[in-house]
């Protein structure tokens, strides 16, 4: 009998509980009926979720974060696809330098990027604008999309493309009907990862955002400076529920394993 089996199971269970405990505590606190953070709570209530809907600043910030994340991640993926295909398929002078340039935002602290973007956008008239936010977010999330799309492009079998070309398919048709479906797992997972990083970004966005273009993380950051109540926990719990719901829908419609790993459903 393998004695390591039960011990490993207990260890994995405790480790998983350690990871999930903060999330579960936030979700429980969000349903408190009291006006302050407390656990255990004296009763359950939806008052703080109603408070989110009654707060127009949080609703507007959430909408702005969704739009910003969708636009910036789509642009990042659009730039990453041709860059990844060129880097994966061709050897040319400066290839490593260009790759390092695209990935360089990962090595620069976001506070430095925030100060630099603030100065730059002020000079060109984009300070405090939504366009400035989009451009800055594209820069910082591009490496996340590029790395996953580059991994998918590197392992792609090009003989299928050659077969399509030999049958008379144009370059655009080959890309649309052959290349893109083959790298779709990398594109989809790159878009999701880029969207998550854009939605959660706060350090750099604090310097660029304005009262008219405030994202949800920045709004939460500003809110907790003057208030300590379960509203923040309710917002966090709502985001957790939405994320879980989106993952369940994707798994139901497409399959997470097929989307993120690239394996077909049997």
Number of helices: 12
CATH architecture: Orthogonal Bundle
CATH structural fold name? MetI-like fold
What is the typical, i.e. mean, pLDDT? Answer: 84
Uncertain ranges = none
What is the strand content?
Answer: under 5%
CATH homologous superfamily identity: MetI-like
The CATH class? Mainly Alpha
Order of helices and strands: HHHHHHHHHHHH
Number of domains: 1
Calculate the terminal CA-CA distance, rounded to whole Å.
34 Å
The major sheet is characterized as: none
How helix-rich are the residues, as a percent range? Answer: over 70%
Radius of gyration, taken over Cα atoms and rounded to an integer in Å: 23 Å
Overall form: globular
How many runs of DSSP E, i.e. beta strands?
0
Class by alpha and beta content: mainly alpha
């Amino acid at each position: 009998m393998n004695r390591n089996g039960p011990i490993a199971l207990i260890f994995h269970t405790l480790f998983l509980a350690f990871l999930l405990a903060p999330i579960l505590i936030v979700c429980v606190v969000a349903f408190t009926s009291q006006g302050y953070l407390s656990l255990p709570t004296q009763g359950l209530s939806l008052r703080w979720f109603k408070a989110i809907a009654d707060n127009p600043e949080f609703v507007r910030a959430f909408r702005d974060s969704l739009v910003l994340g969708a636009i910036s991640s789509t642009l990042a993926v659009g730039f990453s696809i041709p860059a990844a295909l060129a880097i994966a398929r061709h050897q040319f002078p400066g290839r490593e330098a260009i790759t390092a340039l695209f990935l360089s935002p990962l090595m620069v602290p976001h506070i430095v990027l925030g100060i630099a973007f603030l100065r730059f956008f002020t000079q060109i008239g984009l300070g405090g604008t939504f366009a400035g936010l989009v451009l800055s977010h594209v820069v910082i999330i591009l490496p996340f999309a590029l790395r996953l799309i580059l991994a998918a492009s590197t392992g792609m079998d090009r003989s299928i493309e050659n077969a399509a070309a030999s049958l008379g398919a144009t370059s655009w048709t080959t890309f649309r009907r052959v290349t893109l479906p083959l790298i779709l797992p990398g594109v989809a997972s790159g878009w999701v990862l880029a969207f998550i990083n854009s939605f959660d970004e706060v350090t750099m966005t604090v310097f660029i955002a304005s009262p008219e273009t405030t994202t949800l993380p920045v709004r939460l950051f500003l809110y907790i400076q003057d208030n300590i109540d379960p509203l923040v926990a309710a917002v966090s719990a709502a985001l957790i529920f939405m994320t879980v719901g989106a993952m369940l829908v994707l798994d139901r419609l497409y399959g997470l394993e097929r989307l993120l790993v690239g394996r077909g459903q049997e």
